[in-house]
Amino acid sequence: MMTKNLFKKPIWYLMVLTAGMLFTFTSCDDDDDPVLNDSNDITSFVFNDLSPAVSATISGTTITAEVPYDADITSLTPTIEVSDAASVSPASGTTIDFTNPVTFTVTAEDGTTQDYTATITVAPIPTSVITPVWERTLASGGLPEWFTANNDRDIAASGDYVYVHNNNDKIRVLDITDGTDVMVRDTVDYIDGKENYASGNLFLLGMDVDSQGKILASNLRVGSADQFPWYVYKWDNKDAEQELLINYPTPEGYRLGENLAVAGDITTDAYVYVPGSGFGTESNEVLKFSISNGEANNTPEMIVLDGITNMGNAPDVQPLSADADANLIVTGTGVGIREYTSTGSLVGQLPESLNDGENAPLFAFALDIHPFELDGRKLIATTATDFTANAADAGWLYIIDYTDGWENITADNVTRYAFTPEGNIDTNFNGTGGVDVIVNGSTATVYAMITNFGVAAFDVTIDQ
Prior knowledge:
InterPro entries: DUF5018, Quinoprotein_ADH-like_sf
CATH architecture of the largest domain: 6 Propeller
Signal peptide: 1-29
Helix content: under 10%
Oligomer: single chain
Strand order of the largest sheet: 3-4-8-7-6
Number of strands: 35
Number of domains: 2
Low-confidence stretches: 22-28
Radius of gyration: 36 Å
CATH topology of the largest domain: Neuraminidase
Distance between the termini: 99 Å
Structural class: mainly beta
Largest sheet: 5 strands, mixed
Protein name: DUF5018 domain-containing protein
CATH class of the largest domain: Mainly Beta
Domain DUF5018: 70-266
Keywords: Signal
Protein backbone atom coordinates (compact mmCIF):
# COMPACT_ATOMS: atom_id res chain seq x y z
CA MET A 1 0.00 0.00 0.00
CA MET A 2 1.20 3.45 -0.86
CA THR A 3 1.02 6.17 1.80
CA LYS A 4 0.37 9.72 0.59
CA ASN A 5 2.71 12.34 1.92
CA LEU A 6 2.07 16.02 1.21
CA PHE A 7 5.55 16.89 2.21
CA LYS A 8 6.80 14.99 -0.82
CA LYS A 9 4.78 17.32 -3.15
CA PRO A 10 6.64 19.92 -5.12
CA ILE A 11 6.91 23.36 -3.56
CA TRP A 12 4.89 24.93 -6.31
CA TYR A 13 1.95 22.66 -5.38
CA LEU A 14 1.93 23.84 -1.78
CA MET A 15 2.05 27.49 -2.85
CA VAL A 16 -1.04 27.08 -5.08
CA LEU A 17 -2.92 25.24 -2.34
CA THR A 18 -2.22 27.97 0.23
CA ALA A 19 -3.30 30.76 -2.12
CA GLY A 20 -6.61 29.01 -2.80
CA MET A 21 -7.38 28.62 0.87
CA LEU A 22 -6.66 32.30 1.49
CA PHE A 23 -8.95 33.27 -1.37
CA THR A 24 -11.75 31.11 0.04
CA PHE A 25 -11.50 32.62 3.55
CA THR A 26 -11.43 36.14 2.21
CA SER A 27 -14.49 35.57 0.04
CA CYS A 28 -16.52 34.21 3.02
CA ASP A 29 -15.70 37.30 5.15
CA ASP A 30 -16.94 39.65 2.43
CA ASP A 31 -20.28 37.79 2.11
CA ASP A 32 -20.95 37.98 5.93
CA ASP A 33 -20.70 41.80 6.28
CA PRO A 34 -24.16 43.02 7.69
CA VAL A 35 -26.28 45.57 5.79
CA LEU A 36 -27.63 47.99 8.45
CA ASN A 37 -31.28 49.20 8.23
CA ASP A 38 -31.60 52.90 7.40
CA SER A 39 -35.38 53.18 8.10
CA ASN A 40 -36.23 55.78 10.78
CA ASP A 41 -40.02 56.19 10.59
CA ILE A 42 -42.78 56.48 13.18
CA THR A 43 -45.50 54.09 11.97
CA SER A 44 -48.02 54.42 14.82
CA PHE A 45 -48.66 56.93 17.62
CA VAL A 46 -51.52 56.04 19.99
CA PHE A 47 -52.69 57.23 23.41
CA ASN A 48 -53.83 53.92 24.85
CA ASP A 49 -54.13 55.45 28.32
CA LEU A 50 -57.23 57.36 27.16
CA SER A 51 -60.65 55.73 26.98
CA PRO A 52 -61.37 55.27 24.18
CA ALA A 53 -57.83 55.22 22.83
CA VAL A 54 -56.85 58.09 20.51
CA SER A 55 -54.73 57.38 17.40
CA ALA A 56 -52.71 60.29 16.03
CA THR A 57 -52.49 61.20 12.36
CA ILE A 58 -49.00 60.94 10.86
CA SER A 59 -48.37 63.07 7.76
CA GLY A 60 -44.74 63.24 6.71
CA THR A 61 -42.92 64.17 9.88
CA THR A 62 -45.96 65.88 11.45
CA ILE A 63 -48.03 64.11 14.12
CA THR A 64 -51.41 65.55 15.19
CA ALA A 65 -54.17 64.36 17.50
CA GLU A 66 -57.16 65.79 19.34
CA VAL A 67 -57.78 64.33 22.79
CA PRO A 68 -61.02 64.62 24.80
CA TYR A 69 -61.72 67.93 26.53
CA ASP A 70 -61.21 66.38 29.97
CA ALA A 71 -57.85 64.73 29.19
CA ASP A 72 -54.83 66.01 31.10
CA ILE A 73 -52.64 67.24 28.25
CA THR A 74 -49.75 67.79 30.67
CA SER A 75 -49.51 64.07 31.38
CA LEU A 76 -50.13 61.84 28.36
CA THR A 77 -48.39 58.56 27.57
CA PRO A 78 -48.09 57.67 23.88
CA THR A 79 -47.45 54.17 22.61
CA ILE A 80 -45.11 54.58 19.61
CA GLU A 81 -44.19 52.06 16.94
CA VAL A 82 -41.16 52.68 14.71
CA SER A 83 -39.28 51.00 11.85
CA ASP A 84 -37.58 47.64 12.45
CA ALA A 85 -34.38 47.96 14.47
CA ALA A 86 -34.98 51.70 15.02
CA SER A 87 -35.40 53.52 18.36
CA VAL A 88 -37.26 56.67 19.36
CA SER A 89 -36.59 59.37 21.91
CA PRO A 90 -38.54 60.15 24.07
CA ALA A 91 -39.23 56.43 24.27
CA SER A 92 -42.60 54.79 23.80
CA GLY A 93 -44.47 54.63 27.12
CA THR A 94 -42.93 57.83 28.47
CA THR A 95 -45.37 60.25 30.15
CA ILE A 96 -45.00 63.65 28.47
CA ASP A 97 -46.34 67.20 28.80
CA PHE A 98 -47.93 68.07 25.43
CA THR A 99 -48.86 71.65 26.32
CA ASN A 100 -46.47 72.66 23.53
CA PRO A 101 -45.38 70.67 20.43
CA VAL A 102 -42.96 67.85 21.27
CA THR A 103 -40.09 66.64 19.05
CA PHE A 104 -39.50 62.89 18.73
CA THR A 105 -36.21 61.68 17.21
CA VAL A 106 -36.13 58.30 15.48
CA THR A 107 -32.70 56.70 15.06
CA ALA A 108 -32.27 54.01 12.43
CA GLU A 109 -30.07 50.96 12.86
CA ASP A 110 -27.39 52.59 10.72
CA GLY A 111 -27.37 55.67 12.99
CA THR A 112 -29.26 58.06 10.70
CA THR A 113 -31.98 60.13 12.43
CA GLN A 114 -35.27 61.77 11.60
CA ASP A 115 -37.25 64.27 13.74
CA TYR A 116 -41.06 64.24 14.09
CA THR A 117 -43.14 67.03 15.67
CA ALA A 118 -46.21 65.99 17.67
CA THR A 119 -48.90 68.63 18.25
CA ILE A 120 -51.74 67.54 20.56
CA THR A 121 -54.88 69.65 21.00
CA VAL A 122 -57.78 69.35 23.42
CA ALA A 123 -61.33 69.07 22.10
CA PRO A 124 -63.70 71.87 23.16
CA ILE A 125 -66.03 71.28 26.10
CA PRO A 126 -69.34 69.76 24.90
CA THR A 127 -72.03 72.44 24.92
CA SER A 128 -75.80 72.32 25.01
CA VAL A 129 -77.50 73.88 22.00
CA ILE A 130 -81.04 75.22 22.55
CA THR A 131 -83.26 75.52 19.47
CA PRO A 132 -86.89 76.75 19.73
CA VAL A 133 -89.54 74.34 18.42
CA TRP A 134 -92.51 76.57 19.18
CA GLU A 135 -93.01 79.58 21.43
CA ARG A 136 -95.93 81.39 23.00
CA THR A 137 -93.84 83.86 24.97
CA LEU A 138 -93.25 87.57 25.40
CA ALA A 139 -90.02 87.17 23.44
CA SER A 140 -91.89 85.66 20.49
CA GLY A 141 -94.64 88.26 20.47
CA GLY A 142 -97.27 87.24 22.98
CA LEU A 143 -98.73 84.91 25.61
CA PRO A 144 -101.67 82.53 25.30
CA GLU A 145 -104.86 84.52 25.77
CA TRP A 146 -105.76 82.41 28.81
CA PHE A 147 -102.56 83.33 30.69
CA THR A 148 -103.27 85.20 33.92
CA ALA A 149 -101.17 87.75 35.79
CA ASN A 150 -99.50 85.41 38.27
CA ASN A 151 -101.43 82.15 38.55
CA ASP A 152 -99.87 79.91 35.88
CA ARG A 153 -97.19 77.88 37.57
CA ASP A 154 -96.26 74.46 36.23
CA ILE A 155 -95.95 72.28 33.13
CA ALA A 156 -95.79 68.59 32.20
CA ALA A 157 -95.56 66.75 28.88
CA SER A 158 -96.35 63.25 27.66
CA GLY A 159 -97.47 61.59 24.46
CA ASP A 160 -99.36 64.04 22.24
CA TYR A 161 -99.95 66.74 24.83
CA VAL A 162 -98.42 69.40 27.02
CA TYR A 163 -100.26 70.26 30.23
CA VAL A 164 -99.99 73.76 31.71
CA HIS A 165 -101.28 74.77 35.14
CA ASN A 166 -103.59 77.78 34.76
CA ASN A 167 -105.42 80.12 37.15
CA ASN A 168 -105.29 77.86 40.23
CA ASP A 169 -107.96 75.36 39.14
CA LYS A 170 -107.35 74.48 35.48
CA ILE A 171 -104.92 72.44 33.42
CA ARG A 172 -104.63 73.70 29.86
CA VAL A 173 -103.96 71.10 27.17
CA LEU A 174 -101.65 71.97 24.26
CA ASP A 175 -100.66 70.08 21.13
CA ILE A 176 -97.12 68.87 21.80
CA THR A 177 -96.01 69.50 18.19
CA ASP A 178 -96.96 73.20 17.89
CA GLY A 179 -98.30 74.41 21.24
CA THR A 180 -101.81 75.12 20.00
CA ASP A 181 -104.79 74.68 22.36
CA VAL A 182 -106.50 71.27 22.38
CA MET A 183 -110.13 70.64 23.27
CA VAL A 184 -111.05 68.52 26.28
CA ARG A 185 -114.23 66.43 26.08
CA ASP A 186 -114.99 68.42 22.91
CA THR A 187 -116.33 71.28 25.01
CA VAL A 188 -113.46 73.23 26.63
CA ASP A 189 -109.69 73.58 26.24
CA TYR A 190 -108.82 72.75 29.85
CA ILE A 191 -109.09 70.04 32.48
CA ASP A 192 -111.22 71.20 35.38
CA GLY A 193 -109.07 70.77 38.44
CA LYS A 194 -111.35 72.40 40.97
CA GLU A 195 -111.34 70.30 44.11
CA ASN A 196 -114.17 67.85 44.38
CA TYR A 197 -113.01 66.65 47.78
CA ALA A 198 -112.69 69.83 49.84
CA SER A 199 -112.72 73.57 49.41
CA GLY A 200 -109.64 75.72 49.64
CA ASN A 201 -107.76 78.72 48.35
CA LEU A 202 -105.44 77.25 45.71
CA PHE A 203 -107.06 74.18 44.18
CA LEU A 204 -104.06 73.21 42.04
CA LEU A 205 -100.40 74.14 41.98
CA GLY A 206 -97.79 71.39 41.52
CA MET A 207 -98.23 69.09 38.52
CA ASP A 208 -96.51 66.13 36.79
CA VAL A 209 -97.16 63.02 34.67
CA ASP A 210 -96.20 59.44 35.44
CA SER A 211 -94.33 57.10 33.10
CA GLN A 212 -97.60 56.13 31.36
CA GLY A 213 -98.80 59.70 30.83
CA LYS A 214 -101.32 59.83 33.67
CA ILE A 215 -101.72 63.37 34.98
CA LEU A 216 -101.09 64.24 38.62
CA ALA A 217 -101.68 67.56 40.35
CA SER A 218 -101.90 68.72 43.94
CA ASN A 219 -103.36 71.58 45.90
CA LEU A 220 -101.42 73.98 48.12
CA ARG A 221 -101.67 73.53 51.86
CA VAL A 222 -100.05 75.11 54.88
CA GLY A 223 -100.33 72.87 57.93
CA SER A 224 -102.57 74.22 60.72
CA ALA A 225 -105.64 73.19 62.66
CA ASP A 226 -108.07 74.97 60.35
CA GLN A 227 -106.60 73.83 57.03
CA PHE A 228 -107.76 71.01 54.80
CA PRO A 229 -105.46 68.07 53.97
CA TRP A 230 -102.96 68.03 51.16
CA TYR A 231 -104.39 66.13 48.20
CA VAL A 232 -102.85 64.64 45.10
CA TYR A 233 -105.31 64.09 42.25
CA LYS A 234 -104.99 62.00 39.11
CA TRP A 235 -106.53 61.90 35.66
CA ASP A 236 -106.00 58.84 33.47
CA ASN A 237 -106.03 61.10 30.41
CA LYS A 238 -107.12 64.58 29.38
CA ASP A 239 -110.79 63.54 29.11
CA ALA A 240 -110.92 61.45 32.31
CA GLU A 241 -112.62 62.18 35.61
CA GLN A 242 -110.65 63.60 38.51
CA GLU A 243 -109.75 61.01 41.18
CA LEU A 244 -108.09 61.25 44.58
CA LEU A 245 -104.70 59.52 44.86
CA ILE A 246 -103.14 60.81 48.12
CA ASN A 247 -104.82 62.30 51.20
CA TYR A 248 -102.34 63.64 53.75
CA PRO A 249 -103.04 65.79 56.84
CA THR A 250 -100.48 68.57 56.45
CA PRO A 251 -98.30 68.85 59.60
CA GLU A 252 -98.06 72.13 61.45
CA GLY A 253 -95.37 74.35 59.95
CA TYR A 254 -95.30 72.60 56.56
CA ARG A 255 -96.28 74.15 53.26
CA LEU A 256 -96.93 71.46 50.66
CA GLY A 257 -97.70 71.61 46.96
CA GLU A 258 -95.40 74.27 45.55
CA ASN A 259 -93.98 71.55 43.29
CA LEU A 260 -94.67 67.89 42.72
CA ALA A 261 -92.72 65.02 41.13
CA VAL A 262 -93.77 61.47 40.30
CA ALA A 263 -91.45 58.64 39.25
CA GLY A 264 -92.79 55.34 37.94
CA ASP A 265 -96.25 54.04 36.99
CA ILE A 266 -98.95 54.92 39.51
CA THR A 267 -101.05 51.91 38.45
CA THR A 268 -98.26 49.61 39.66
CA ASP A 269 -95.27 51.03 41.57
CA ALA A 270 -94.24 54.65 41.83
CA TYR A 271 -93.05 57.40 44.16
CA VAL A 272 -94.45 60.89 44.64
CA TYR A 273 -92.10 63.55 46.00
CA VAL A 274 -92.99 66.94 47.46
CA PRO A 275 -90.69 69.43 49.23
CA GLY A 276 -92.00 70.34 52.65
CA SER A 277 -91.23 74.04 52.66
CA GLY A 278 -92.22 77.34 51.15
CA PHE A 279 -93.19 80.93 51.89
CA GLY A 280 -93.31 81.62 55.62
CA THR A 281 -92.18 78.16 56.73
CA GLU A 282 -88.82 76.52 57.36
CA SER A 283 -88.07 72.94 56.53
CA ASN A 284 -85.26 70.82 55.18
CA GLU A 285 -87.39 67.74 54.52
CA VAL A 286 -88.66 66.06 51.37
CA LEU A 287 -91.79 63.94 51.70
CA LYS A 288 -91.69 60.69 49.69
CA PHE A 289 -94.99 58.85 49.18
CA SER A 290 -94.82 55.29 47.87
CA ILE A 291 -97.36 53.61 45.60
CA SER A 292 -97.40 49.82 45.50
CA ASN A 293 -99.70 47.78 43.24
CA GLY A 294 -101.58 50.96 42.46
CA GLU A 295 -102.31 51.77 46.13
CA ALA A 296 -100.82 54.90 47.69
CA ASN A 297 -99.37 54.92 51.19
CA ASN A 298 -100.64 58.13 52.79
CA THR A 299 -97.82 58.13 55.35
CA PRO A 300 -94.68 59.46 53.67
CA GLU A 301 -91.03 58.80 54.32
CA MET A 302 -89.37 61.98 55.58
CA ILE A 303 -86.00 62.64 53.93
CA VAL A 304 -83.97 65.17 55.93
CA LEU A 305 -81.52 67.09 53.73
CA ASP A 306 -78.08 67.48 55.30
CA GLY A 307 -76.34 70.83 55.45
CA ILE A 308 -79.38 73.12 55.24
CA THR A 309 -82.14 74.28 57.56
CA ASN A 310 -84.49 75.76 54.98
CA MET A 311 -85.13 75.00 51.31
CA GLY A 312 -86.48 78.51 50.87
CA ASN A 313 -89.37 79.69 48.74
CA ALA A 314 -91.10 77.54 46.11
CA PRO A 315 -88.61 74.66 46.34
CA ASP A 316 -88.61 71.73 43.92
CA VAL A 317 -87.33 68.16 44.09
CA GLN A 318 -86.85 65.67 41.24
CA PRO A 319 -85.56 62.09 41.45
CA LEU A 320 -82.94 60.88 38.99
CA SER A 321 -84.88 57.66 38.34
CA ALA A 322 -87.89 55.64 39.46
CA ASP A 323 -85.70 53.46 41.71
CA ALA A 324 -86.44 53.38 45.41
CA ASP A 325 -82.92 54.62 46.19
CA ALA A 326 -82.77 57.29 43.47
CA ASN A 327 -80.71 60.40 44.15
CA LEU A 328 -82.59 63.69 44.28
CA ILE A 329 -82.00 67.05 42.60
CA VAL A 330 -83.24 69.86 44.84
CA THR A 331 -83.61 73.59 44.31
CA GLY A 332 -84.95 76.58 46.22
CA THR A 333 -83.93 80.07 47.22
CA GLY A 334 -82.18 78.65 50.25
CA VAL A 335 -80.10 75.99 48.49
CA GLY A 336 -79.37 76.96 44.89
CA ILE A 337 -79.27 73.61 43.04
CA ARG A 338 -78.00 70.47 44.78
CA GLU A 339 -77.88 66.69 44.51
CA TYR A 340 -78.69 64.48 47.50
CA THR A 341 -78.77 60.74 48.07
CA SER A 342 -82.09 59.05 48.79
CA THR A 343 -81.26 59.30 52.49
CA GLY A 344 -80.50 63.04 52.39
CA SER A 345 -76.70 63.09 52.21
CA LEU A 346 -75.26 65.88 50.06
CA VAL A 347 -73.60 64.68 46.84
CA GLY A 348 -72.72 68.05 45.34
CA GLN A 349 -74.02 71.51 44.55
CA LEU A 350 -73.78 74.33 42.06
CA PRO A 351 -70.51 76.17 42.83
CA GLU A 352 -70.94 79.54 44.51
CA SER A 353 -68.43 80.93 42.00
CA LEU A 354 -71.25 80.87 39.42
CA ASN A 355 -73.40 83.20 41.51
CA ASP A 356 -72.58 86.16 39.30
CA GLY A 357 -73.70 87.76 36.05
CA GLU A 358 -75.85 85.65 33.73
CA ASN A 359 -75.89 82.69 36.11
CA ALA A 360 -76.87 84.59 39.27
CA PRO A 361 -80.63 83.85 38.74
CA LEU A 362 -79.87 80.18 39.34
CA PHE A 363 -79.22 81.15 42.96
CA ALA A 364 -81.83 83.91 43.24
CA PHE A 365 -84.73 81.79 42.03
CA ALA A 366 -84.43 78.54 40.10
CA LEU A 367 -88.14 77.87 39.69
CA ASP A 368 -88.38 74.24 38.68
CA ILE A 369 -85.86 71.56 37.71
CA HIS A 370 -85.73 68.42 35.64
CA PRO A 371 -82.61 66.21 35.40
CA PHE A 372 -82.04 64.08 32.30
CA GLU A 373 -79.28 62.35 30.32
CA LEU A 374 -78.43 63.02 26.68
CA ASP A 375 -75.59 61.59 24.58
CA GLY A 376 -73.82 60.43 27.74
CA ARG A 377 -74.09 63.86 29.36
CA LYS A 378 -75.81 64.49 32.71
CA LEU A 379 -77.96 67.61 32.39
CA ILE A 380 -80.46 69.68 34.33
CA ALA A 381 -83.13 71.87 32.76
CA THR A 382 -84.43 74.70 34.91
CA THR A 383 -86.30 77.95 34.54
CA ALA A 384 -85.13 80.93 36.58
CA THR A 385 -85.84 84.60 37.18
CA ASP A 386 -84.28 87.43 39.13
CA PHE A 387 -86.89 87.32 41.87
CA THR A 388 -85.03 89.92 43.90
CA ALA A 389 -86.39 92.48 41.41
CA ASN A 390 -89.83 90.82 41.17
CA ALA A 391 -88.62 89.25 37.92
CA ALA A 392 -89.60 92.28 35.90
CA ASP A 393 -86.66 92.19 33.53
CA ALA A 394 -86.32 88.64 32.31
CA GLY A 395 -86.87 84.93 32.74
CA TRP A 396 -84.72 82.20 31.25
CA LEU A 397 -84.47 78.53 30.46
CA TYR A 398 -81.10 77.13 31.61
CA ILE A 399 -79.40 73.86 30.70
CA ILE A 400 -76.67 72.86 33.17
CA ASP A 401 -74.13 70.12 32.40
CA TYR A 402 -72.82 68.44 35.57
CA THR A 403 -71.33 65.34 33.91
CA ASP A 404 -67.82 66.00 35.23
CA GLY A 405 -68.89 66.56 38.82
CA TRP A 406 -70.57 69.45 40.60
CA GLU A 407 -67.26 70.93 41.71
CA ASN A 408 -66.13 71.20 38.07
CA ILE A 409 -69.12 73.12 36.73
CA THR A 410 -68.09 76.41 35.11
CA ALA A 411 -69.88 79.01 33.03
CA ASP A 412 -68.96 76.94 29.96
CA ASN A 413 -71.28 74.21 31.25
CA VAL A 414 -74.34 76.50 31.37
CA THR A 415 -76.51 77.53 28.42
CA ARG A 416 -79.55 79.80 28.66
CA TYR A 417 -82.40 81.10 26.52
CA ALA A 418 -84.50 84.22 27.21
CA PHE A 419 -88.28 84.13 27.50
CA THR A 420 -88.62 87.89 27.38
CA PRO A 421 -87.44 90.72 25.14
CA GLU A 422 -84.84 93.15 26.35
CA GLY A 423 -86.40 95.78 28.59
CA ASN A 424 -89.37 93.59 29.49
CA ILE A 425 -91.73 95.31 31.95
CA ASP A 426 -94.13 92.46 32.77
CA THR A 427 -93.63 90.97 36.20
CA ASN A 428 -93.55 87.47 37.68
CA PHE A 429 -94.47 88.43 41.24
CA ASN A 430 -94.68 84.81 42.41
CA GLY A 431 -91.36 83.82 40.90
CA THR A 432 -92.85 80.63 39.53
CA GLY A 433 -92.50 78.42 36.49
CA GLY A 434 -92.11 74.85 35.36
CA VAL A 435 -90.10 72.55 33.13
CA ASP A 436 -90.39 69.01 31.75
CA VAL A 437 -88.20 66.97 29.39
CA ILE A 438 -88.73 64.18 26.86
CA VAL A 439 -85.58 62.51 25.47
CA ASN A 440 -85.66 60.94 22.03
CA GLY A 441 -82.30 59.61 20.88
CA SER A 442 -79.77 62.43 20.53
CA THR A 443 -82.37 65.17 21.06
CA ALA A 444 -84.17 66.20 24.22
CA THR A 445 -87.26 68.38 23.93
CA VAL A 446 -87.66 70.70 26.90
CA TYR A 447 -91.11 72.10 27.66
CA ALA A 448 -90.94 75.18 29.84
CA MET A 449 -93.17 77.92 31.18
CA ILE A 450 -92.60 80.98 33.33
CA THR A 451 -95.44 82.79 35.02
CA ASN A 452 -96.52 85.80 32.98
CA PHE A 453 -93.67 85.26 30.50
CA GLY A 454 -94.99 82.38 28.41
CA VAL A 455 -94.77 78.73 27.44
CA ALA A 456 -92.49 77.12 24.85
CA ALA A 457 -90.80 73.96 23.58
CA PHE A 458 -87.09 73.73 22.79
CA ASP A 459 -84.91 71.04 21.26
CA VAL A 460 -81.64 70.51 23.13
CA THR A 461 -78.67 68.78 21.50
CA ILE A 462 -75.04 68.30 22.49
CA ASP A 463 -72.34 69.90 20.35
CA GLN A 464 -69.22 67.78 20.88
